[in-house]
Amino acid sequence: MTASPASSHPHSFPVLAARLWPLYLSQALATGATTVSTILASLVMSDLGSERLSGLPATLISVAAALSAAYFGALMLRRGRRLGLASAFGLGTLGGVLGFLGASWGMTPLFLAGAATLGAAQGGFQQARYAAAESVPAQVRGLALGLLMMMSVLGSWVMTGFGVQITALGNQLGTGEEVTGWLVGAGLLGLAAGLMALWRPVQEPAAAAQRGAAAPARPSLAAALAMPGVKSTAAAFAAAQAIMVTLMSLTPLRAHHMGQEHGSIAQLISGHIAGMFAFGLLTGPLIDRLGLRFGFVAGGALLLLAAATSVSETHAGLLLSMFVLGLGWNLISLTSSKVLARFPAAQGPSDSLAFAASALGTLLGGLLMAQAGFPALAAAAGVLALLPLWSAWRVRPH
């Protein structure tokens, strides 16, 4: 019995998915690692007696990712995606170990060094989406990227289900669940690094094929933002990134203060990640069909709803907030990416602005929460959520 032409064609999606499974699985492991480590860093800072600086780890993560992304991009350009991703996963393993040791020994500087190292790793392994796109023909790239997003959600959900085992391991090690998660995350990222040895791109990435080519000049942020249609889009993306990272980082700390257990907090994180990634195969075509303005308005409205419900006193209310926070970010991110695709020179500076905004948001958010309470933080996030409405008014419909 012979295979059907659709299934045996070297460019059919089943064949491509079979070839890309190490890349997909590595992303599931990476998302699972961040679910049990960096996202709960504010709780670790509170346990270390530095609650006033509870947003500092997320700030360091964002700054380190911003600084490392260009380096990893250049490394992948010279040596290929596989080596670059393996290096990023390996660096993340080191960051997880440092974070675990710092939290276990009560050494806040060492813990923060681990957070910064893991953040630098994220600047590299988050570029796996480019590796997936470059490794398949154009006609199946949407499916390849959609599956990559689904694997990210799967990694988070699976690790949420291991909460009991993480707690048991923490009891053996004499550490809390939020601290043990850093060691578990290090192990997961180590496995992801090993998987890169098994990954063979279906076709040579364009970036790797152009090794040795002169790098184009990078425009300044001011020059990029002066391009038509970019300034408002960059503002919307930066606002969405700042709101998402800040509330994602500090809502678990608020839930902890409300007396919620580790398992309940893990549910909040999983719901948030589901909103971010699980609906990519639906929101992308929806924006294509209804337009860019729909994406900005709907995304901004969801971010505003997330800010309003983040002050809820119930687990269900916080779960709703975290879910719509992720979904609103999803819409703004996809819409902004579609706009910026017309302005390649502006993509790097706009991403830099978004990373800077998220870093500043988490730092100031932690201070604001300590001084004025979480409702003040939620109100500030709600004001920022109005920026995408300006983008909807300024953006060109097509």
Write the SSE topology.
Layout: H1 5-8, H2 13-35, H3 41-47, H4 56-79, H5 81-104, H6 108-125, H7 128-134, H8 141-161, H9 163-173, H10 177-195, H11 206-209, H12 221-225, H13 231-257, H14 262-277, H15 280-290, H16 292-309, H17 315-340, H18 344-372, H19 374-384, H20 387-394
Helix pairs in contact: 2-8, 2-10, 3-13, 4-5, 4-6, 4-18, 5-6, 5-10, 7-8, 8-14, 9-10, 13-14, 13-16, 13-17, 13-18, 13-19, 13-20, 14-17, 15-16, 15-17, 16-17, 16-19, 16-20, 18-19
Key descriptive features of the protein:
398 residues, mainly alpha, Growth Hormone, Chain: A, 20 helices, 79% helix, 0% strand, globular, disordered N terminus, transmembrane transporter activity, MFS_dom
DSSP strand content: under 5%
CATH superfamily of the largest domain: MFS general substrate transporter like domains
Mind telling me which CATH architecture of the largest domain this is?
Answer: Up-down Bundle
Indicate the overall shape: globular
Helical amount among residues, as a percent range? over 70%
Number of individual domains: 2
Sheet with most strands: none
Give the beta-strand count: 0
Q: Are there runs of 5+ residues with pLDDT below 50, and where? A: 1-9, 203-219
Remind me, CATH topology of the largest domain? Answer: Growth Hormone, Chain: A
Helix-strand pattern: HHHHHHHHHHHHHHHHHHHH
Structural class: mainly alpha
Cα-atom Rg, whole angstroms? 20 Å
H/I helix tally: 20
What's the level 1 CATH class of the largest domain? Mainly Alpha
The termini sit apart by 49 Å
The overall average pLDDT, rounded, is: 80
Keywords: Membrane, Transmembrane, Transmembrane helix
Transmembrane segments: 21-44, 56-76, 83-103, 109-128, 140-159, 179-199, 220-244, 264-283, 290-308, 314-332, 353-370, 376-393
Domain Major facilitator superfamily (MFS) profile: 19-398
GO molecular function, one term: transmembrane transporter activity
